[in-house]
Design a protein that fits this description.
Blueprint lengths: L6 H4 L1 E5 L2 E7 L10 E3 L3 H4 L3 E5 L8 E6 L4 E9 L4 H4 L7 E5 L2 E2 L12 E10 L3 E8 L3 E11 L10 H12 L3 E12 L3 H12 L4 E4 L31 H6 L2 H13 L4 E4 L2 E9 L2 E9 L5 E11 L5 H6 L3 E2 L5 H4 L15 E2 L2 E5 L42 H21 L10 E6 L4 E2 L4 E2 L7 H5 L8 E5 L4 E5 L1 H6 L7 E5 L20 E4 L11 E3 L8 H7 L2 H21 L3 H6 L2 H10 L18
Parallel strand pairs: 12-13, 12-17, 13-14, 17-28
Antiparallel strand pairs: 1-2, 2-11, 3-4, 4-11, 5-10, 6-9, 6-11, 7-8, 7-10, 15-16, 16-17, 18-23, 19-22, 20-21, 24-27, 25-26
Helix pairs in contact: 5-14, 14-16
């Protein structure tokens, strides 16, 4: 294992001649063992952190070696939290130790505080040059450690304020800003919409940066979340729209091919593990996107002519000051008969993928008194998730996302623990092992960025005049999700099961029509939903486009969002060639975009073993 050899430059800050402060970001540990980097909540708590996600089995130690220049007594501060404290701070499932040269500090961690903050771990005498530090998981139940500070200043207390913590990090770590150069288009988010945007733009000659905050691409369609692509593609009147979606297919099955396609495209540079969390503005235009490397904490700058926000959360648009909406509009605003009478913050929930596997031997699982508690009335007898395992309806899917994810972990662990240890059917499950629980939830809804057109229920039903820039064909029904009424009775306000309320669509699920609602044909989404109303060089593709909540319930399907990306890629090429804004593509150059839409994107060198026309065609 390598030791951290840049310590004197990046980790030591001398407040005085006799004071040494060493700041260790755990995501930089040389050997992460069984711990994983969790970057999902950077915008809320300020940093990636290490997560001991062992599904009830302690994970291998994370370890690193640091260099001590000044022997002596060091106070140890640890940034951590008891993730169960939102429900019961007296119980702490994510406990772990920190060991220095094999000797544990006297206190366990993950017991406090209730929110992210610094805990004094006591003091330790360090007298040798190289010191090994280990994070030793005790439970396998999602202990988390963000950073460790060692200091000889007994009066030093690190701040829990995120802004002050950022300044401390900058002072102690000396994180640099790396200029990645100039691009025609910066695509932030490499879910299906981001992938099709980048590939389409690049194949039309647009110099493109694809920036993504995970180590693998695909977003909800990746192996981390595994949501299948649904929705018709390559349909009249624009049969060539959807070809890139068909080429990519389900990314969780074709990740290597997708990465190869990106790397073989000379006009794309792919930047993985980069969390887009800043912008530099020139009036109402984004001139640079800033991203934090979740492995190194360095900042990266991407100078750009145009930006495509494919983050799902509308994160870049939000940072740039784009108009956006969140929640459910009232019925009176657009006259949507399916909208609530009054505005509502009730949203779609998120889903955590989990599976149990039948083995050839008896498998145990720990008793989890800290998790959600079940009985024969409330237990969910199942060996895997389905779409209707969904939670967070009543919470903000951005600001409360750690709470939502952690609540789902409590649901999964508590339910499985009851089945294995207490249920009347535990013999039926004795040889099942809970083998997979994702720590990355699949999100359905958050911000919707506003364009020149807001697409609504009436547009889906075909009651309004057809748009002259309508290119993306939607084939799915209006599909609202609500908390399951029985689950509401059993777990009021904290539901984790959902129901659907569909309207009939011939190319969507077949079921009776809802009285008063008429969907007779597929519909077309206009280009003017795919760029920002008030940020002059901002496109969007995915679930963050300009639609009402009711319309989102249909347009969010990945077949449609992938086609949105193809249109944005085409429009960006028109912008680059004509030095115009996304809006001016519509007002001045619509015929040029229509020509590209008719032609579609040429797919180069598809291997014979790659299935081009997918099952959802």
């Amino acid at each position: 294992m390598k030791k951290i050899i840049l310590l004197a430059v990046t980790f030591i800050f001398c407040a005085s001649a006799s004071t040494q402060i060493i700041f260790l970001e755990t995501e930089k540990f040389e050997d992460k063992g069984g711990w994983v980097i969790d970057p999902l909540f950077i915008d809320q708590m300020g940093s990636p952190f290490l997560l001991a996600h062992g599904i009830g089995k302690p994970v291998d130690d994370a370890k690193t070696v640091i260099e001590i220049n000044e022997p002596g007594d060091y106070s140890v501060w640890v940034r951590t939290r008891n993730w169960n404290a939102d429900w019961d701070e007296s119980q702490s499932p994510g406990r772990y130790q920190i060991l220095f040269n094999g000797k544990p500090l006297p206190n366990e961690f993950g017991i406090a505080p209730s929110k992210w903050g610094w805990i004094n771990g006591g003091s330790i005498y360090l007298d040798q040059e190289d010191v090994e530090i280990r994070l030793h998981d005790l439970t396998g139940f999602d202990g988390r450690c963000d950073a460790i500070i060692l200091t000889k200043d007994k009066y030093f207390v690190p701040s829990n304020d995120n802004e002050e913590l950022t300044k401390l990090r900058e002072a102690l770590l000396g994180a640099q800003t790396i200029d990645e150069g100039d691009f025609d288009l910066v695509v932030v988010g490499a879910g299906l919409a981001g992938l099709t945007t980048a590939l389409s733009a690049a194949r039309l000659g647009v110099k493109t940066a694809l920036v993504h905050n995970r180590p693998i691409v695909g977003g909800n369609n990746s192996s981390e979340i595994n949501i299948v692509i649904q929705g018709g593609i390559c349909l009249p009147p624009y049969k060539n729209i959807g070809k890139v979606v068909a080429e990519i297919g389900n990314v969780y099955d074709k990740h290597d091919y997708v990465i190869s396609a990106i790397k073989n495209e000379p006009n794309i540079k792919l930047f993985l593990n980069m969390h887009g969390n800043g912008v530099e503005m020139d009036g109402t235009k984004i001139k640079s996107v800033l991203a934090t490397n979740i492995l190194t904490a360095d900042r990266h700058k991407f100078k750009c002519k145009y930006v495509a926000d494919c983050t799902g959360d509308g994160a870049i648009g939000f940072l740039a000051g784009a108009e956006y909406r969140i929640g459910r509009e009232p019925r009176r605003e657009f006259g949507e008969v399916l909208a609530p009478e009054e505005p509502s913050s009730l949203s779609y929930g998120s889903t955590v993928k989990w599976n149990a596997t039948k083995t050839k031997k008896q498998e145990g699982f720990p008793v989890t008194p800290w998790a959600l508690q079940f009985s024969e009335v409330t237990v969910q007898y199942a060996t895997s998730y389905d779409w209707d395992w969904e939670t967070g309806f009543r919470y903000n899917q951005i600001e409360d996302f750690e709470y939502i994810r952690d609540y789902f972990l409590r649901v999964i662990y508590g339910n499985w623990s009851y089945i294995k240890n207490f249920s009347k059917r535990k013999e039926d499950y004795k040889d099942y092992d809970l083998t997979y629980v994702s720590f990355v939830p699949g999100k359905r809804e958050s911000r919707r960025l506003i364009g020149d057109v807001i697409f609504t229920q009436q547009d889906i039903e075909g009651e309004y005049v057809k748009y002259d820039d309508a290119f993306v064909k939607g084939t799915y029904s209006i599909d609202q999700h609500f908390p399951h009424p029985e689950n509401t009775v059993q777990f009021p306000g904290e539901e984790f099961r959902s129901i659907q309320k569909h309207c009939y669509n011939p190319l969507g699920p077949t079921e009776p029509k809802i009285p008063g609602v008429n969907i007779n044909n597929p519909y077309l989404i206009p280009y003017r939903c795919l760029y920002s109303k008030n940020i002059n060089n901002l496109f969007m593709a995915g679930r963050d486009i300009s639609v009402s909540h009711i319309a989102l319930t249909s347009t969010r399907l990945q077949g449609a969002t992938g086609m949105m990306g193809e249109i944005v890629g085409m429009a960006s090429s028109v912008c680059v060639k004509n030095e115009c804004s996304p809006r001016e593509v519509y007002t001045l150059h619509l015929s040029k975009l229509k020509k590209l839409v008719q032609q579609g994107i040429m797919i180069p060198n598809v291997p014979e073993n790659v299935k081009f026309v997918p099952e959802w065609h």
